[in-house]
Design a protein that fits this description.
single chain; about 500 residues; alpha/beta; TIM Barrel; eight-stranded parallel beta barrel; three-stranded mixed β-sheet; 17 helices; about 15% strand; globular; binds ligand GBH
Length: about 500
């Protein structure tokens, strides 16, 4: 029965796994990891001199925005439970742990003139513990939690913000360049800017209807590039690390074969992918032509005297172009794109993009309303990036699935297996993928969804004072994939007991 189900499933997802019995293995050097982000797991929001972040302010000012009322004040309490976190990583047998540093925890007002040693001590301990156990730290410098002090100065819309970020990056590189060899500058500029400044989905939740979201994009890209160039100039030779950026790279397919929707999907790809990819990863650099012309035209119609999309000077284009040793791909799902039939009365990113998204009716839904399973989309986005950007070197820095609470997360186990199978096919077809990161190591604060959408390989009991962590089925399935370096859709653990096993394959960077 189970075999029949698996076959059916393969048919449904359009994979050729049914008749194709070839066993595909992840190459020896392929790295497996798990991820988290500071605000989502650390808690201790004002402990030991930490400064306030925009997420602290956002959820404290408007508690009603968090659907279940559970915010990041305590979260998974990783600020105190980091030993257990590393133990979980050892149980999984991962090669690396991706976590982020909270900027206001180490520089309370954002500036390097006041360093919070107690905040740094937490990351010292975590990094030390990881290295002791042969797990590479992969550090994200910015995962959505700007110091509120800098937000009060305009945050990422302030032209000085790219310099603030470079100054912060310098402090962190100075402290950890000898220990950390994998760096992500910023996570998902589109979420930072479009969701944070152009809507109220994410902090600072400004919902501004003018140029701010685009100005933010420019400044975040410049901040990223300045941090990259700084590492390249000062640290690279001695420490030989790699610096990348994580972009939200979901896939966009046309809703049907109509010309109008072919145009709409082109817009979606250039606004959602090209806006960040072209400046860094194309030969010419700069924002995509389609985005430049579309926003310029809309801006004029809306009464702006200049385009809402700022220009990049030739110097800025050169600075940003090529500013990554690898591309971090955050891939969750696929959207089907139609030309919008909405009348947008106020200027907005959505009005410029002018496209409506839906998802396949037959795709399996996760707990998050935006998330449905379409593994073929991972294959397609890889092939698309290879073609458009000449086979970039990539690491999947996030992929994940949400469920309700509970340990028997068969849907997450299946989702990981199906997406990894799609990835193996993409690699067979030339994709330069060097690693995969499961989002997330453990349940955490899913931003405004609170704890109502669980992404963890490990469940966190948020009601228990000790925030007890327990392995889910998916943790054992992922461990088995890491151990065998292949995907067996039928493998099942004999129990949910998970134990540390010594690794025989050690990732080399
Ligand atoms: C990533 O974002 C983040 O990097 C990570 O922190 C997060 O926990 C993870 O994915 C899971 O979401 O309410 O319909 O407006 C993925 C992109 C951006 C998807 C915000 C959800 C809000 C959707 N996310 N978005 S909606």
């Amino acid at each position: 029965m189970r075999v029949v189900l698996v076959c059916l499933l393969n048919l449904l997802i359009g994979s050729d796994g049914w008749t194709d019995t070839k066993i595909r293995k992840f190459p020896k050097q392929f790295m497996f990891g798990a991820a988290s982000a500071a605000y989502q797991v650390e808690g201790a929001w004002d402990a030991d001199g930490k400064g306030e972040s925009i997420w602290d302010r956002f959820v404290h000012d408007s508690p009603e925005i968090v659907v279940d009322g559970i915010n990041g004040d305590v979260a998974s309490d990783s600020y105190h439970l980091w030993r257990r976190d590393v133990e979980m990583l050892r149980e999984l047998g991962v090669d690396f742990y991706r976590f982020s540093i909270s900027w206001p925890r180490v520089l309370p007002n954002g500036y390097p003139t006041s360093i919070n040693e107690a905040g740094f001590a937490y990351y010292d301990s975590l990094i030390e513990e990881l290295i002791t156990h042969g797990i590479h730290p992969m550090v994200t410098l910015y995962h959505f939690d700007l110091p509120q002090y800098l937000q009060d100065l305009g945050g990422w819309t302030n032209p000085l913000s790219s310099q603030w970020f470079e100054d912060y990056a310098r402090v962190v590189f100075d402290r950890y360049a000898d220990k950390v060899k994998l760096w992500i500058t910023v996570n998902q500029p589109n979420t930072i800017c479009i969701d944070g400044y152009g809507s109220n989905a994410m902090a600072p939740g400004l919902n501004l209807k003018s140029k701010e979201a685009y100005e933010c994009v420019k400044n975040v890209l410049l901040g990223h590039a300045k941090a990259y160039r700084l590492y390249e100039k000062v640290y690279k030779k001695k420490h030989d690390g790699n610096v990348g950026i994580s972009l939200a790279l979901n896939w966009f397919d046309p809703f049907d074969n109509s010309t109008i929707n072919a145009e709409a999907v082109e817009r979606a790809r250039e606004f959602e992918i090209g806006m960040y990819m072209r400046p860094i990863f194309s030969k010419t650099g700069d924002f995509p032509t389609l985005v430049k012309t579309t926003v310029a035209k809309k801006s004029q119609e809306q009464g702006f005297t200049t385009s809402k999309l700022p220009t990049l000077t030739p110097e800025e284009i050169t600075l940003i172009k090529g500013s990554a040793d690898f591309l971090g791909m955050n891939h969750y799902t696929t959207f089907l794109v139609k030309a919008s039939n909405k009348q947008h009365m106020t200027p907005s990113y959505a009005a410029d993009l002018h496209a409506d998204y839906s998802q396949g009716a037959q795709w399996k839904p996760a707990k998050s309303p935006w998330l449905k399973s379409a593994p073929y989309g991972l294959y397609k986005v890889c092939i698309y990036l290879n073609k458009e950007y000449d086979y970039p070197t990539m690491i999947i820095t996030e992929h994940g699935w949400s469920t309700a609470a509970g340990l028997g997360d068969q849907s997450r186990a299946d989702n990981i297996r199906q997406y990894l199978s799609a990835l193996l096919l993409a690699m067979e077809d030339g994709t330069e993928m060097r690693g995969y990161t499961a989002w997330s190591l453990m349940d955490n604060i899913e931003w405004t969804a609170g704890t109502s959408e669980r992404f963890g390989l490990y469940q966190v009991d948020f009601d228990s004072p000790t925030k007890e962590r327990t392995a889910r089925l998916s943790a054992l399935v992922y461990k088995n994939i890491i151990e065998t370096r292949e995907v067996d859709p039928q493998w099942e653990p004999s129990s949910l007991n998970i134990k540390i096993t010594s690794k025989n394959v050690k990732a080399e960077l």
